[in-house]
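hey so i finally got around to running the thing on that chain from the lab meeting. sorry it took forever, my laptop kept dying and i had to restart like 3 times. anyway pasting the input first so we r on the same page abt which one it is
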Amino acid sequence: MRAERVQRSNVEVVVAHRQRATLRVGEVFLKVDGDPAHADIEVRAMALAPIPTPAVLWHQPPVLAIAAVPGQALGVLGEPSPAPSSAWAAVGAAIRKLHDAPLPPWPGPEPASLAADLDKECAWLLDNAVLPAAVVRHNREIAQAALQPRKKVFVHGDLQITHVFVDGDEVTGVIDWSEAGPGDALSDLATLTLGHEERLDDLLAGYGPDADREVIRAWWSLRSLLASRWLIEHGFDPDAPGCEFDVLRARMP
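ok and heres what got predicted. didnt touch it at all, straight out
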């Protein structure tokens, strides 16, 4: 009897740094994380979220295996999104559904801790002359509006444009839920439109008109300031066209 031929799949490194790595093997993603709490939150959040999420295949710390979701990412940072306006509106409606869901039963970040982190990151940017001091200080002032206490909702927490998948104008899946929890709804809207300000109207057409645009802009500054050092230290380039440094420079008068 001949042995059955097993189909082979290439192993693709999706992302890898000192904290975690994600590999793709065929239609399976393997997420390896040094902090088991991240995967625990991800599994729990996907079970609670009322929007499409990947299927969890198995979870054996430090590895979480999830199925690929259909469709294509909404876009990538630094490049125009190829998705039509209707897809952005559909994503906005899905995010609103998430934000209207019951809060997950674990804590989220508090404004006081974010403010302390922001002060630390701005000091590092200034000490290392990574950006002109005027850019850092002006964006630090803008970011203050994002630190005001607001009603907490169920947020994704890291709703980057590459984490949302669509097929036409249908949302087929939202991935990477390890930072989900109670938080500011406007932080999700800002993260998704970071570097894609021209798509904010499309997103809010589906989400609803009650989102404070000035606070969303404040979150653009806050997220870019908080992320820059981490990106640099982990081999990413926040100064690439359309990325975090361009977002910060664009806020200048």
